[in-house]
Design goal:
The complex is a heterodimer of chains A (319) and B (201). By secondary structure, chain A is an alpha/beta fold. Chain A is 44% helix and 17% strand. Chain A contains eleven helices and 13 strands. In chain A, the strands form three sheets. In chain A, strands 1, 4, 6, 7, 8, 10, 11 and 12 form an eight-stranded mixed sheet that branches. The N and C termini of chain B lie far apart (67 Å). In chain B, 82% of the residues lie in helices and 0% in strands. Chain B is globular and about 60 Å long. Chain B has ten helices and no strands. Chain B is mainly α and 201 residues long. Classes of the chains: A alpha/beta (319), B mainly alpha (201). Chains A and B meet through α1 of A and α2, α5, α6 and α8 of B.
Chain lengths: 319, 201
């Protein structure tokens, strides 16, 4: 029996040895394929750069589902809070790919970034395809703005829109019965013309929001309002023009923005980058989102939402 | 106490019988000498890690491997242990249909030890992978072969447990597979109906 037992122990030892050899084999293969440092794509540790992504129209409460969705201002602020509390985060890169969004949501993100800036956390904005209007507003809270040559930016201004469907309704013989508590309760109604008084009221909101926009951009860019005002007429511009008007600090890619943030935080060139993680399963579901969802089934089109609420005043580049 | 038990090498008998004499394996489990229930869970734990390493050898090797051998191993071990418990429960139920006494604890131990032959998948597949000779085919081939070996261990163990013939023990072994298979089959049909209905809207 003892002989058999020893034989079995030998077999077990061989099994363990083959497992160890297999694991070493796999690790060596990985090193050959992915370079010497496993940490390049493996778990990262130590001081580094945090990434915050602002993509799509900005609104206070976005729609989130396993199939994707529109990230909200609340989500962005939560992410910024996470980075603020993480002692490993020495600088933040805000990746912006947004045409803007609602005034309140944009201002919330701006103020949060401003608070971080006052805490001396280096902030670098990296503009993607578009960072216009509210997108630019947010970028202006950062210490440095890096835009691509082809980035659409600018569009400093405020807009409120409401369709006038009166003609269509008359043609179809539809009339709307409105019972209201005050004369302005159905302001910006789609079923009638806007009155001059109503227009004045809306204009006041627009002007106030615009002044705030201008003031905040001037504060963030450390320029005077009068320097910005000539280009703050809602015009959109490319990266090069924005650089000319000092609305951005440099032309470059996302990688350049990362390099800049490393410099500002005095980090080494290979300091880790902590991006917003998405598990492979989430990536799969996000990828499926466009394919398996009917329009507006789970993630409504934000442009479709625009007309649901007539009171929506936006820092938005109209595309 | 534990060290003395380890040094005595009596635990090796359980593994040895798993490979060579399933009837003796059951007798050893029944005697509970050495205590085998907790020890048996080492089998699903080891099989989980061996399966992960084997599949990683055959597949694309990325740094995700480190997650697989850590978190993935825990998950696979839990799944494997759960499967053992469910299969044991169903086999125990089938045994009681035949009028035999229920004994789920021994069933779980037996099923866990029956996994031991599956340890050999790694060295077997590794050879074909080193020579790059149809490793995936041989993985499937050996997996099937080792599964049959495991099944024979359980069947003979059940036969010894209830002093029944090989045919009845096979029915007890197949009962969970048939039940789970039938359930999954109907679930798949329902899923297909739902999918077709959804896509055709």
């Amino acid at each position: 029996m003892d002989r058999n037992r020893k034989l079995l122990i030998s077999i077990l030892a061989l099994l363990v040895l083959s497992s160890v050899i297999a694991i070493v084999d796999i690790s060596m293969n990985m090193q050959q394929k992915h370079g010497m440092g496993i940490s390049l794509s493996g778990p990262q540790v130590g001081p580094g750069i945090g990434i915050v992504r602002i993509e799509g129209p900005i609104q206070m409460s976005g729609t989130q589902s396993p199939f994707g969705g529109i990230p909200s201002a609340e989500h962005v602020i939560r992410r910024l809070n996470e980075l603020e509390q993480n002692s490993d985060i020495r600088a933040i890169v805000v990746r912006i790919n947004s045409p803007g969004g609602t005034v309140g949501a944009t201002q919330e993100i701006y103020e949060k970034l401003w608070r971080l800036r006052k805490k001396n956390i280096p902030l670098v904005a990296s503009m993607g395809e578009i960072a216009a209007s509210g997108g630019y507003y947010i970028a202006s809270a950062c210490n440095v703005i890096v835009a691509n040559h082809g980035t659409i930016t600018g569009s400093i201004g405020v807009i409120a829109m409401s369709p006038n469907l009166r003609g269509l309704f008359e043609k179809l013989g539809i009339s709307m019965t409105v019972i209201k508590s005050g004369r302005y309760k159905d302001i910006l109604s789609s079923f009638r013309e806007i009155s001059p008084e109503e227009r004045q009221l809306i204009q006041e909101i627009i002007d106030s929001s615009y002044r705030k926009f201008l003031k905040d951009v001037a504060r963030g860019r450390q320029m005077s309002e009068s320097d910005i005002e000539p280009v703050a007429d809602g015009r959109v511009m490319g990266g090069e023009t924005a650089l000319k008007y000092k609305l951005v600090d440099a032309l470059g890619t996302f990688e350049d923005a990362l390099d800049k943030s490393r410099q500002m935080a005095k980090l080494s060139e290979d300091a880790p980058v902590y991006d917003e993680t998405r598990t492979p399963f989430e990536q799969l579901l996000y990828g499926m989102g466009g394919r398996f969802m009917g329009p507006g089934l789970m993630v409504p089109d934000p442009r479709g939402l625009q007309f649901e609420n007539s009171y929506r005043v936006e820092y938005r580049c109209v595309q | 106490m534990i060290l003395a038990e380890l040094k005595s090498l009596r635990w090796a008998d359980l593994l040895l019988y798993s490979l060579m004499d399933p009837r003796s394996l059951y007798r050893q489990i029944n005697r509970d000498e050495p205590r085998s229930f907790a020890l048996s869970f080492l089998m699903p734990a080891s099989v989980a890690i061996i399966e992960i390493v084997t599949l990683s050898l055959l597949g694309k090797q990325t740094p995700f491997f480190y997650y697989k051998v850590t978190y993935g191993w825990i998950l696979l071990f839990l799944c494997q242990a759960l499967i053992s418990v469910i299969a044991a429960s169903l086999m125990d139920m089938a045994s009681q249909f035949f009028g035999w006494k229920g004994n789920i604890r021994e069933f779980i131990t037996l099923i866990n030890f029956s996994l031991f032959p599956r340890f050999f998948i790694l060295p077997l597949v590794y050879i074909f992978r080193v020579f790059n000779f149809a490793p995936l085919f041989f993985y499937t081939f050996f997996s099937l072969g080792l599964f049959i070996w495991s099944a024979l261990v359980v069947i003979q163990g059940v036969s010894e447990m209830h002093s029944c013939n090989f045919g009845k023990a096979t029915v007890v072994f197949l009962f969970p597979a048939i039940l789970i298979g039938t359930t999954l089959f109907f679930m798949m049909i329902l899923l297909a109906f739902c999918g077709i209905g959804y896509l055709s809207v």
